[in-house]
Each structure stands twice: as structure tokens, then as C-alpha cells.
Design a protein that fits this description.
By secondary structure, this protein is an alpha+beta fold. Helices cover 33% and strands 26% of the residues. It folds into 2 domains: 2-53, Beta Barrel (OB fold (Dihydrolipoamide Acetyltransferase, E2P)), CATH 2.40.50; 65-149, no CATH class. It contains 4 helices and 8 strands. The chain has a 5-stranded antiparallel beta sheet, with no helix packed on it.
Length: 157
């Protein structure tokens, strides 16, 4: 599989499987935000190149939840931030933190009955949502589709 070795202005150097280095215009890349180390597929059309980001099974096209042998858990970042965290507040369950997930849901349920419980649960959801947005769409996970957590539910990377 080919890999981006260097990005130099409008030119990109790509190391191919045959141990050759191809220099292509950055305009021939068919994806946004190329980074050194990205796995790519290079197609030649005469003197022109078409470069697509390689389908990496862990980053792109697997199920939304992935459990690895190390106890790590990967969740699609869009599902995690917008559905699990913002809409339902069940992000702690997706992270594998069942106890905290139950406590968070209890606070929100109590919040429907009391003002203080609702404020505590609402603040917790807001803080978790802001943290998840910064982590998911920031530099740590900017190029991947999944967010990875360790066995304790902590963000990895």
C-alpha cells in the first residue's frame, strides 16, 4: 500500500509498494486534509495521477463499535458526539463506563423532578459534549472516523 511521505507546497511525494517514490500534484489527491503517513491508493492515467485515501478497515468501514483484544473500544466519532453524547447522554456507556452512565442518567431523570438535579445533569452533559467535540474534531482524531478508548474509558491518542 502506498503512503504519503512528504507534502511540499503543491507537490506530494508518495512511496509506492515497488519502493519507488512518485511526485504528484496535490490537486490529484481525491480527499481533504492529506497528512504525512496517510495510506493511499495511486492510480495512473498516462501522465496524470489519481490518489485516493485507502480504505483502512479500522478507521473507515467497520461497525460503529469495535472491541479489540486489548480491551480498547472504538466508536464512530460522529455517532459518539452527536447521538450518544448530545442527543441521549449515553456517551459513558459507549466508552464502557457503565457505572458513570447509570449515574448520569439518574441525575437527568431526577432533573425532570427537581431543579437542582436537572442543573447538575445538564452541566455534566454539556461538559462531556464540549470535551467530546474538542477531542473528536481536534487534532487527535481529525483524520480518523473512530474515537478510541482504553479499557477504563479514557480517550486514547
Amino acid at each position: 500500500m502506498a503512503e504519503i511521505l512528504k507534502i511540499d507546497g503543491a507537490k506530494v511525494k508518495i512511496g509506492e509498494d515497488s519502493s519507488k517514490v512518485a511526485t504528484v500534484p496535490i490537486a490529484s489527491l481525491q480527499f481533504a486534509n492529506p497528512q504525512v503517513g496517510d495510506k493511499v491508493e495511486v492510480f495512473r492515467d498516462g501522465d496524470d495521477f489519481i490518489v485516493k485515501k485507502a480504505d483502512n478497515a479500522k478507521d473507515c468501514h467497520q461497525d460503529d463499535k469495535i472491541n479489540t483484544e486489548d480491551g480498547e473500544r472504538a466508536v464512530n466519532k460522529h455517532v459518539f458526539v452527536w447521538v450518544g453524547n448530545f442527543l441521549f447522554g449515553v456517551d459513558r456507556f459507549l466508552r464502557g463506563q457503565v457505572g458513570l452512565g447509570i449515574l448520569k442518567i439518574c441525575l437527568n431523570t431526577i432533573g425532570w423532578l427537581t431543579v437542582i438535579g436537572g442543573m447538575a445533569g445538564g452541566v455534566w452533559i454539556l461538559i462531556d459534549w464540549i470535551i467530546s467535540i474538542v477531542k473528536a474534531y481536534g487534532s487527535a482524531y481529525g483524520n480518523t472516523e473512530n474515537i478510541t478508548f482504553d479499557a477504563n474509558g479514557n480517550y486514547l491518542k
